[in-house]
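User: You have something folded?
Assistant:
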Amino acid sequence: MWPSDWPSSARAIATAVEGAVTAARSADEPGFDATTADLAELPADQVTAVLAAIVRELLETAHPDGLTGDDVGAVLAAVVRRSAVWLPHLDGAAVFSALAGALGIDESEDPERERTDPRPAAVLLIDYLADLAGTSPHESVQRAINEIARAETVEMP
């Protein structure tokens, strides 16, 4: 259950993210496709912000001494290997895009490159990184949304 003081959009995003992570954890391709389709129906900028915040937090937790290029490569390879077994339509470039976006790396240099929606790939990153960090995806979702809400209420000087 999500906090009742959250706006309905935050609760909807949290529920959809948690459902998608649950489907990923059980390697349920139809369930994953359905829950990530639910995510696609929600406000893209808000969903993207929540997913990126969760991925960043889990990366920091899993790599407390800092993230190296080798760490990034290992995460990408592990997520693709782990997910490709049950998700044959997985686009490895989308996994990279989701990770790059979470790290604040702008990929807009090649405007002609066709991009796959990175949000489902971000869910796969969350599934893997939560295991790697030894933390609950539910708690990561809650912390991310609470942090976004806190950041939005801080007055600018």
In short: The mean pLDDT is 89. The helical segments are 8-25, 29-40, 44-62, 69-84, 92-102, 119-133, 137-153. The CA atoms of residues 45 and 51 lie 10 Å apart. The radius of gyration is 15 Å.
